[in-house]
Amino acid sequence: MKKQIQIIFDCNDTLVHKPDTARIIRSFLKSEYQRSVSISRVEGALRTMYERRKLKHPRFTSEVGRQKFYITYNKELCSILGLKLTDQQALSLNSQLRKAQWKLFPDVLPILRFYSKKGVPIGVVANWTSMLESVLRESRIRSYFDFIYSSHELGTEKPNPAIFKKALRRAAMKSGNVYYIGDDYDLDVVPARLAGITPILIDRKNHYAAGIDCLKVKSLNSLKNVIV
Q1: Please, are residues 43 and 13 in contact by the beta-carbon 8 Å criterion?
Q2: Domain count, the chain
Q3: Residue 81 lies in a domain
């Protein structure tokens, strides 16, 4: 008998994203410095910051700790662009960035509807705060998921494969017929594979080489041809 397929998704940059982030940063810098920085340069700086910090998922225990993190983060980000922020400017930028809205990628709803109609169990496991479920609810996709586990809830984060093992136990799922879809090789592919899950890399912007050693799709719609 064929085993039932089960699918788990990452969240940030897999299901949802904040497409206005680079624009907000660009507008802020123009206002503060009267300098025009291109969107592509800002996006490049954001990508550099992501690669530098992706293996260090922050845990905030207080508002002071959260502010200190974003002061450091925003100063480092702007230094890549050749600009120096004060602590107050860094906090002001963070205040504007927090107003950015999470939005679904256009390929998300079609694929969730497709597998939901087939009766495929679907979940989310992501490095996130306790606000993960709220983000999915506000994005109007919460109802598609049978379970949602954040690193905050599970007490560990990717790239530790323990996050997947804990999630599988809680959801009473066996690893042999489970697929995990995420956008980062180190955070998603490697630990999922170590946990006995089949990883699939969603690479909308072609960050990764075609010959990478895992299944790779450019759109979630392509999952229909991979997970059957």
Answers
A1: no
A2: 2
A3: yes
